[in-house]
Amino acid sequence: MTGIVVGRRALLGGVAVALLAGPIGGVHAAERPTAPIERFAQALLSIMKQGKATPFAQRANALTPALEGALNLPVILRLSVGASWAGLAPAEQQRLLNVFLQYTVATFVESFDSYDGQTVTVSPNPRPLSDNAQVVRTEIIPRDGTDPHAIDYVMRPAPDGTWKATDVLADGTISRVAVLRSDFAAMLARGGVAALESSLQKKTAALESG
């Protein structure tokens, strides 16, 4: 397995999404399903080492390209919104996607803000699923080597031929999309897409302010 060192906050369940290691470089259509996750983990490791001494916005800007390369945010958002997505105007969809990107980035930056010696591994052998998906298993291992925390990434080919995660499974079973879908459904029922957009903006601002 490939390993890197990461920080304590990576173990918290508030994010339940992403890690790993590897060189940051160009994306190629024929690359392994593990490669985007490895690049994302390398970017996370970098902002963790920077910590709170570096402005939040600077860390967010540094993380965004790798996050967009690892997670298929348009698909994750569409699945999380559910049936209501088809009824949104293209402009509403794009506006909500922009807000969702900012929220997702802020969530990671706030959670991965320190570095104290955990190890993260990624299995080199993804597990195939019947619908052409590949599950990339990662583990966050504490400094003492006990009680590793598993995070699985459900990778699928994107239209450009690269691999991106369309769901993340905390402890191998807890679907990030399912959690978001539940949260979003309640917000959409109360006030439609405007309420969901406003809620994500407020949550993002709270994360940025600490």
How is the secondary structure organized here?
Blueprint: E1 2-6, H1 35-50, H2 56-70, H3 73-81, H4 90-111, E2 118-122, E3 127-128, E4 134-141, E5 149-157, E6 163-170, E7 174-175, H5 176-209
Antiparallel strand pairs: 1-2, 2-4, 3-4, 4-5, 5-6, 6-7
Helix pairs in contact: 1-2, 2-4, 3-5, 4-5
Describe this structure in words.
It is built from 5 helices and 7 strands, in the order βααααββββββα. The protein has helices spanning 35-50, 56-70, 73-81, 90-111, 176-209, and strands at 2-6, 118-122, 127-128, 134-141, 149-157, 163-170, 174-175. Strands 1, 2, 3, 4, 5, 6 and 7 form a 7-stranded antiparallel β-sheet that branches. Strand 4 and strand 5 form a beta hairpin. The radius of gyration is 17 Å and the shape is globular. It starts with a strand and ends with a helix. The model is unreliable at 5-29 (pLDDT under 50).
Brief overview:
The chain is of the alpha+beta class. The chain has a single domain (2-209), classed as Tgt2/MlaC (Nuclear Transport Factor 2, Chain: A).
What labels describe this entry?
210 residues; alpha+beta; Nuclear Transport Factor 2, Chain: A; 7-stranded antiparallel β-sheet; 7 strands; 46% helix; globular
Would you give the CATH topology? Nuclear Transport Factor 2, Chain: A
Give average pLDDT, whole number: 84
**Which stretches of 5+ consecutive residues score pLDDT under 50?**
5-29
What would CATH call the class? Alpha Beta
Q: In total, how many domains does the architecture comprise?
A: 1
